[in-house]
Amino acid sequence: MGDRLPSHDVLAEEYSVARVTVRQAINLLEIDGVLTSRRGRGTFVAAQPGLRRRMLLHPTLESLLTMMRARPHEVELIDEGEATPQLDGEEGRLAPGYKFLRRLEKRELIPFDLHTLYIDWRLFDRASDRFRRGYVIRELVEMPGVQLATARQIITFGTADSEAAARLGIATNSPVAMIRRIFRDPEGVVFFLGDYIYPGDVVQIDMDMNCNERPSRKKK
94 and 195: one domain? Predict the structure, then answer.
């Protein structure tokens, strides 16, 4: 960990590939949390193979979809049924009914996140098998006829209860990041809600604060 990668040109020459191929490969590894780029310094190894890799928090829906299209999905279906999510007044209106899925995602057989999903049953019936095993968000966004008006992502931090700890392979009360994703249609109806629990050592928040741009000071 921490080793600096050679330049794109050096890697392209060493592996006899185009420079654009090197750039695309590095981008995918950054999405997967294996590499991290530091402005003006280069690209560095952020995780070792076989360890629980970090996840860069995706600030946009498009960056999340890019990750989903690039990385195969390893998921274990734990439970399913019919249930209604709890919404506050600002999160939207309830659909007539929801399909409930509880799943465990893994990366290289290592537990990565535990999530509970609520999908409008009218949409679930159109691709039930893919929803059980695939990326639900990607399936919904790419499904013909689905009208996505707003997509929200809410991040909080807490501790793992006994069930989440057992599923994720961490100690009870270990730090976790909790991400709620809510998709609404133009009428304000929530057709998807997902509650995701990640071990605290997985989530990485990387924000560019434009350190080279200093705020101007007003003269007194």
Answer: yes
